[in-house]
Amino acid sequence: MTIDFESSRAFDERDTLLGFLAHYREELIDKSNGLTDEQARLTSVPPSDLNLMGLIRHMAEVERHWFRRILVNEAVPSIWSDEAHPTGDIDGDFHVTATDTLSESLAQLRTEITIADANIANFGLDAMAIRESRPGTGIPNLRWILVHMIEEYARHCGHADLIRECIDGVKGD
């Protein structure tokens, strides 16, 4: 669902939340349009090692975490990061290598979004997830997860705007 900000003010709560989530998902993906793998790996604000490919990979991990592990308790491993990952890098999603590609990163994000959307379709906004994210944090309902994901994407889209502008001068919305 793509949100039309001029006509969306009468949407119900679910459509509003899903619309904003879809909007920010696409915004992040669009930040990488036209970039080479090398450009997508560029860091632009030293000493930070943040880069567009890493942000895309991070959001694939976040989608997997909230909509597979937490919402439906699916036992899926991390894609690129955590202590159990072969590299042992808890931030491996952000730490791209010379062999990582933008197309593979985008494909993984799109896969996680497709699975997430299928899982979301099975729950009402007040439905409780199956497990908590971290011990002692409580079990969230779907509404909380959607708001959290909108916040997560919005924050990282801001990062992506700045990184992209440093790469080639392209400015975000």
Question: Could you explain the architecture of this structure?
Answer:
This protein has 173 residues and is mostly helical. The chain has a single domain, classed as Four Helix Bundle (Hemerythrin (Met), subunit A). Helices cover 52% and strands 0% of the residues. The chain has five helices and no strands. The two termini are 19 Å apart.
Number of domains: 1
Mean pLDDT, rounded to whole units? 91
Q: Can you count the beta strands?
A: 0
Taken from the alpha-carbon principal axes, the silhouette is globular
Poorly predicted spans: none
CATH superfamily: dinb family like domain
CATH architecture: Up-down Bundle
Beta-strand proportion:
under 5%
Radius of gyration: 16 Å
Helix count, per DSSP?
Answer: 5
Examine the coordinates and then state which fold CATH places here, giving the name of the CATH topology.
Four Helix Bundle (Hemerythrin (Met), subunit A)
Summarize the amount of helix as a percent range: 40-55%
| Element-by-element helix/strand order | HHHHH
Q: Give the end-to-end Cα distance, rounded to a whole number of Å.
A: 19 Å
In short:
By secondary structure, this protein is mainly alpha-helical.
What is the topological layout?
Blueprint: H1 13-30, H2 37-41, H3 52-72, H4 102-120, H5 142-168
Helix pairs in contact: 1-5, 3-4, 3-5
Which labels suit this protein?
Four Helix Bundle (Hemerythrin (Met), subunit A), mainly alpha, single chain
